[in-house]
Amino acid sequence: MISVSGLTKRYGARTVVDDVSFTLEPGTVTGFLGPNGAGKTTTMRMMTGLIPATAGTATIDGRPYADLANPGAVVGTLLDASAVHPGRTGRAHLGLHAIAVGVGSRRVDEVLELVGLADAARRPVGGYSLGMRQRLGIAGALLTVPPVLVFDEPANGLDPEGIRWLRALLRSYAENGGTVLLSSHLLGEVEHTVDRLLVIGGGRIVADGPVGSLLGASGTAVRSVDPRGLADALRAREFHVERQDDGVLVVDGAEPATIGAIAAEAGVALIDLHPVQRGLEHLFFQLTDDSGAAHTPAEH
Ligand SMILES: Nc1ncnc2c1ncn2[C@@H]1O[C@H](COP(=O)(O)OP(=O)(O)OP(=O)(O)O)[C@@H](O)[C@H]1O
């Protein structure tokens, strides 16, 4: 189990991670979601002992990362996939890593196969695409089959097939009892992969819960040939209707079937009708708009 409590990082007067607390249970994939600069990487770097925390603690099975006898056997990290010597082959890079964490060369070949790099393994990493470097970084994290994975933006540079592959890998890791934390600045990238979302903005956790409840459908978006007529008909039934610039009406708390029936009654033809999940998207837009940057203590 991973336990983060009151984790805080200040650079001078700037608080870039502010009193962050959460617990991660085995068998789950948690998405650490937030806009650029929200504090995801800094939190993960503190959790894995790469940088010291200003305050707070992060423990894995009750111990700080730095106190683990062989941290590489407990936590597989992907924190900077570009930090690889470009002249070294993928296999040589992993070979060095394997020695450091105490596994043999057979496992190197297994993980190369697992991440789809077996054919490229004898080529210098300098010639790898961004996606291939990500796969190499993931291979390094999996060498010891650690019970915990901490991956920073693992989908970076992966194509849609690669993202599907990553999703299946992380899901099966969790199904086998692993604890997975992955960060992303894109909601769509993680919403189908994770069980739970931890949303961070301006260094603080702003939402934390199961994906279903955070993303729960909250209304219906409808496009029609007569937005004004349809809005009148909906308001007459006491629905809250918001008209967007493109003429789409967003109706809070309504099922598409209800909206379709009201439109039919009012004689308004519909062009498009679908449920919308506005809760988290709305929150995310707000974060992206105004609190993506870190704040100083004086702003509290
Ligand atoms: N060494 C440092 N010195 C000063 N400020 C830093 C340092 N490292 C990070 N920061 C600042 O901390 C804030 C959080 O950065 P962090 O990299 O943790 O964000 P992030 O959520 O991972 O963003 P991204 O999605 O862009 O990777 C940013 O404002 C960043 O500029």
TrEMBL record:
Q: Which GO terms describe its molecular function?
A: ATP binding; ATP hydrolysis activity
| Annotated keywords | ATP-binding, Nucleotide-binding, Transport
Positions of the ABC transporter domain: 2-227
Q: Which CDD domains match?
A: ABC_BcrA_bacitracin_resist
Q: Which InterPro entries match?
A: AAA+_ATPase, ABC_transporter-like_ATP-bd, ABC_transporter-like_CS, P-loop_NTPase
Q: Specify the domain of life of the species encoding this protein.
A: Bacteria
**What does the similarity note say?**
Belongs to the ABC transporter superfamily.
What's the protein name?
Answer: ABC transporter
